[in-house]
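Notes continue from the previous slide.

Worked example: a multi-chain complex. Inputs as given:
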Amino acid sequence: MVSTSDRPAPRALAALGGRLATAALTAWAAVTITFFALRLGTGDPTASLLAQGLATPAQAEALRHELGLDRPLLEQYFTFLSGLVRGDLGLSLYTGRPVLRIIAEQAPSTAELAGLGLVVAVGLGLLLGIVAAWFEGRALGRAAAGLAGLATALPVAFTGILGLLLLVGLPGSVASPVWAPIRRLALPGLVLGYASSGAIARVVQAGLSESLLRPYILAARARGVRPRARILWHALRPALPPAVSLGALEAAYLFGGTVVTETVFSRPGLGRLLVGAILQGDFPIAQGLVVLAAIVYTASHFAADALAMTIDPRLRGQI
Amino acid sequence: MNRPARSLTAAAFILLALVLGAACSPSPTEPLTLRYGLTLAPTGIDPHLNASSELGIPLSSVYDTLVFLDPATGEFVPGLAERWEISPDGRTYTFHLREDVVFHDGTPFNAEAVRANFEYTLDPENHSQKAASMLGPFESVEIVDESTVALHLSEPFAPLLDSLSQVYLGMASPSALEQWGPADYQFHQVGTGPFRFVEYIPNDHLTLARNPDYAWGPSIYLASTASIERIVFTFYEAEPTRALALQGGEVDVVGEVPPRDAARLAESGGFALTPVAIPGQPLQYFFNTRRPPTDDLPTRQALLLAVDRESIVRTIFGDYSPVAQGLLSAVTPGFSPDVSFPSFDPEAARDLLVQSGWADADGDGVLSRDGQPLTIALVAPNWGSNPDVAQLLQAAWEQLGAEVTLQVAAGFGPLKEIQASGAYNAIGLNFFGTDPDLLRGFYASDGLYNWSGIADARIDDLLRQASQLPLDPEGRRERHRQVAELVRDQALVLPLRDYVDLVVSSNRVQGLRFSALGWFPHLIDLRLEP
Amino acid sequence: MRAGAPEWLSAAWIALVVFASALAPVLATSSPGQPIGEALLSPAASPPLGTDALGRDLWSRLVWGGRLSLAISLGAASLTVLLGTVAALTAAALGGWPDRAVLWVSNSMLAVPGLLLALLIAAAMGPGLPAVVLAVGLGGAPGFARLARTAFLQVREEQYVLAAQALGAGRAWISIQHLLPNASATLLSLATTHYAWAFLGTTTLAFLGLAGDPSAPEWGTMLNAGRANLPYAPWLALAPGLAISLTILSVHNLGEFLARRARR
């Protein structure tokens, strides 16, 4: 194989920088669009406070002034942006507490779940993809491919409830406290990870199938080279970069998946926070979560690109 | 196995054993901790400012009140006040305070502290949702001397002692109130009670620790000191999670367990079920008299008759909940047992509608009159099985021939918002309490929660008179009875079920007793067997 | 390209759902909102599917719910396809800055993952069925627009389009006469696959409680309601859950089949 220089070409750094700039720009655009959508959609929040008797008309007016709602929309937007840069996401409409603090309190639980979900997604995706490709055409391979296909189509709500059913349906043993961490974290993580594993499995299967047909691999298998795992490893390597990039991308989609998983398993976290904010009309919290989501998404896209470039030097030349 | 693998395996086993050993054996310095499950996390937990009854479960043991209400006798017993006098005109209450009480932060408890508390609660900037209105015609607090305080009212106010016995008027440390202010104080609460407030992370947990210096408990506390060192409260908003948490050992006690789960846990043998009847208003729906078609008395009466309350209560609450029979639940002082609400009679309901001109002109199953269909806007709060009850109400009224739109409000705030807009024909709300004067907020024409929009001078007079007879319980009872009759005859409210709180605890928990308000456990009396 | 067993099964299920929904008034044994007996009766005690926690017939609710879920998801999907196609066609036909603008807007909206985007739109509008339709419809538009644009671009590079351009045909003419019809096979497969996503989106939002009216027998709402009684009546959650999953799988399968055919 042709060896490539280990020193990253100057063009690669420029490429990375370009991606970073695009990512930042996209995040900013997302935040902007949602800012205007929320402001134009939810109407006057102080009206709701007034209706609840939480403010007299004089106080409502003062609050409007304080929130800057009596300023032109554009000025409000710049105030929001400057607050954003300082890390100030505003105050929750209902509790008056800083949005950043509320999000920070709920974030660890979601991060825990999403982290486990990512591990499961990548692990399970690799497993299913490898089995589907290695045993292609045979029952085992078809079963693995089927499972992967199901993973993308089955709603997380349903697999979650199936999981819950398993827990509830199991006799007596579930009552012991030993099962608590399984119920609280392992099972939701499994459900969440399974949903995302389908896409990864598909990419791994496609890449591995193709490289298993390469001449040198066929030759090795024909010669009966042992251990077979060695062959697998060599065939797998070209299939990995797209899988890894996809894995990084899935991190962003996992954030959306946690909303449903947290609801199904009644876990605290950002998902429940968002649903609650929507139902109550607490738009500063919803806005703060969008900012977070946009950052997570663009960061993970950037990470995916950077990872891909690192693994496969051929990609470094592209911008 | 080759050598490196063997030593690796051995090391792994040793490590595993260490970890397991550490996990299994309880550390000798770990404090005795009780885990208590709560339900909805309220938006605010300062009892002086917020109205939620959930917050009282932990906080009624953080605060003491001037007087306490004995659930067994219905009499008031001394608390922070050793004794008190009521002036003959009923407008001045003089309290003689205990002199040995100290707040958790070391501040001494005295008349000045009492005044600071009233100022904080009554400050309009602080928007007290419940405590302030519980004080009625309150005028001023006068410091007679360091341990004597006099409360002056502009008129006699019968429920004052009852109000003063509730956690919403518990005594907080004035220095803490001063230091933190109304927004942050809820996270740093300081009282004089048997437990200290340690921390509160919203939606996550709330921790209390034993107050070792507590020596001034009222006679209704059986224990003089708490045996449990720490209590950690966690939140279980979704109903199915409460039984799961008990079974999984995550909590030792949890309330508001759904009836089927409660029955199952009790039968399984490892748990005890304590049903607690809650005084106050039953789960109920008000009819809006200011919006058609419920502005019309026969229509309201028909809607009442069309509902099979027995069946609804049995379907949703099983055998654990009595059907409501009035404006108050049967265990509430002031409940009028001889004013009964009409029972299920769908034919009479239909007759009433027909007689007032409703007919199904176009055969689509919906009644109409003068070209207007019988549309009912039903609004339900999202707690206490209200959405389920509302769905069955909707079914009953649709069976009658109405077109019902159901809206579930996602909390007290959104509920009030919808009510303020006036876009409802039936709306659900109820408050708990131990004094029938709470009816005034709902049925007086100027009541804060007069959501039926009634303005009846007779009701106003009766309620006002009843509130001004602190020394005449018979007179109060008679007047409340007449109010109940008037409300029933005008079909202002549809009462459904008397609240019963199903509290399930593991067998390790002993001494579970509840205050007069029903929701709040006497945490000091709890013991945890090993 | 032959349709195999999975494709026929998928088509059969979809046909079943559509027919059952159309014939709901006939097939349902009772009104979906009225209790017919005790709560939580098993399918054995109260055929065919037992009763829910309020004593309502599950079969009737399922059948009427199919209508509701289909209608909502079709509404959302139509919105997406319409918006996305118009945007993509404009971008592909005109090129230049309209193309860049469309790309930029859709990429920015895509910076928030699909479900989250839909949730955000629901946040701006408040809970309720119309909000669900709009949220899922708008939320899916950027993704669909991107894919449709690629399809149009591929057609644009075809010989006959270049020929038409050389002959001086206007861009609007090219769009309507050439781009749209020739990309229709791909568009159909995209729309079908997207409908699976729209169905998932609307039932998920309803599952999260954003549909407003808890008595409406939407399948997602029913799935959520079934959670509370899992130890006593698991069929209350399994029935709508299976119905939702089978529908999504079937539509997904058909979409993939159409895509394979379009690529040929």
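Summary box: The mean pLDDT of chain A is 77. Residues 106-317 of chain A form a domain with the MetI-like fold fold (CATH 1.10.3720.10).
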